[in-house]
Predict the structure.
Amino acid sequence: MQKLTTYLVAGLLLCLMGIIQACKKDKIAAVVPFEVKSYYPNSGNAGTLVTITGSGFSDGKASISFNGTDAEVLSTTDTLLVVRAPEKGQSGTVTFSNGSKSLTVGEYTYQKLSVQKIFPPNGTAGTQIRISGAGFSSLKSPVEVLINGKSATVVSASDTSLVATVPEGAGSGPVTVKVDGMVSVGQPFQFQTISSIKPLTGGQGTRVTISGEGFAAVAADNVVEFNGKKAVVAEVAVGKLVAIAPEGLTSGPLAVTINGQKIVGPSFTVVPPPSLRLVSPLSGPAGAEMIIDGKDFSTVADENVVTINNVKAVVKEATNLRLTVVLPAGMGKGTVMVSVNDQPVKGPEFTEQNLGILKMEPASGLAGTKVVITGTGFSVNPAENEVTFNGVVAQILNATATTLEVMTPANLTTGPVKVKRAALVAESPVPFSRSGLFTLTNQMGAFIGPLVVDRQGNVFVSNTRENYISKVTPAGDVSIFAGEPNERGVADGNGRNARLGNIYGLVLDENDNIYVSEVSNNGGALRKITPQGEVTTLKSGLPNDVGSLTRDKKGNLYYTQLYRGVFRVYPNGISENVFPRTAEEIRIAISNNNDLFVVGDKYEPTFYWQQLGNNKLTWVGSSVGYQDGPVSSALFGGTISSLLLDHEQNLLIADAHNYALRKLDLSTGQVSTAVKLSKGFEDGSLDKAKIGLIADLAIDKDGTIYISDPNNRAIRKIVLK
């Protein structure tokens, strides 16, 4: 019995396998229908070769008849058939049979007019195609050519050959020739065009969708190039190609070549991957909004893909500098990733919870500063919230579900702000910076101006009219470092034995040597002072309108000359004019990329941004005002008194009449406010501090900014970190 059961099971399995195989065969056969897609030409004399395209042709023996007269089959494949129009045939219906099935191909007319071949069979508007055939000569009117029903211009004609230009927007379709009332239809012309590409920007690895017409059905038959650089075609569909931007691509037109015919489309612009500056908040519930600040985002929202713990978020709004994102459900805890046109960048970790910090106002200050923390999930009972500044508990003054008003603790240090409620903890998107304005000394003269800071934190400041340089130690002790008060001249020497002129510029090198631009009775000069106080003359005999001074990373000095601009002085003493415009004695700056920043008129709220590498000049500022934003619309007060680059290569702008320190991000062209002070004399947090005048700026190795404040006879410093 057991053996019988085994035989029965085996038999059933064999039957099932047979059924499955039969189903597979039926399925395979079903995808290759017996059908005709096109045929050409539809007219001609006996012996004319007629091509028929379609599928299922090789399934059985092919036979063709022209209005009942059998025709000779010259070649057969599964998709193409070539036959000869039979002798003694008559105009009428062409019938095709494969032995078991038959179908109608179309009508064939016996006449002398016949369109037999076109070349090339594909191309764009403006392509000239050669039409071969017979009977093109006309005795009554000019021959007429249509492509997909649209009239084409005939360039040249003979009895057996025509040359015609493909019209705009022709589309794909048959080539038709009309002569003396006769009509002949030839093979289809494949019209090619690129209507759009998306995205228009990106970099290596960006998937670019090319929309258009006339693409080849096989990926390898479409040659896609990005400004001449060949790319891989990853996907083909009707009216669409998807290509991967190749390594080493440059900005320029995208082109597709099919059968040797090139279609040129829109330009693809290479842009760097995005970078992130701020992601806020770092925790919160689904449905809340997240702000992502940075640069090189796409302004087209769907070209920015944001995921949190691999869960995709909706990008609600997009600018080049900011993305506004709606937090998705099911995020949990994980990394924020931003990909702009397939160029990814990794962000911070985010936690899905009901507690989150969106922002702090202000985000810097000293002990005792009132700070408003905005977010979600706070308790309205202050005692149920705990706020810490870099680990130190702060006093909570007031609480709502979305805001906490707190007082910074006495032993405040720079670091993250955290809010704890029950078991949940939220961290601020940026650390709170212990920052403020402090007076290093107020024992200076009334004519202090340019200043520099060495690696030990000593400040060297010029007394412009009294011809000497003071040294201020980190403890605030003041002494004369070089020159003698009210002794004007050009005499080398050590310390107070040297003689200096009116000092308009100071700059340091990496070894703490000080370079000085000055004017005396003998004209302008450039001097060098070692850390030991030894003064030597580098270049003398300059005009008496020599002004400010700066230095580039190669060791070249740059000085202003009022009516002749900016001169570069090489270490060998040779100089050249690099900015032939008016330039005031106000401190100039030069970036690591050789971007030069010059104040042209000290009574105007403007300055020049000259890119020496490509000779591009930008005028920054216009009328008197106070406005952040792009350089095209930013406004400054009546005087810009100093320009200085910080360690991140942002330009710091001393906006004297607004009592503000402004910042220009060179990578984005955006002007923002770094510090806004009030008029007067008061130390403390930046929201309360006061200053008399920002005459010049210097920055130390830690990023602390030093200011000469002649109205208060003081050296002030702004701590931002």
User: Anything to note?
Assistant: Residues 1-20, 22-29 have pLDDT under 50 and may be disordered.
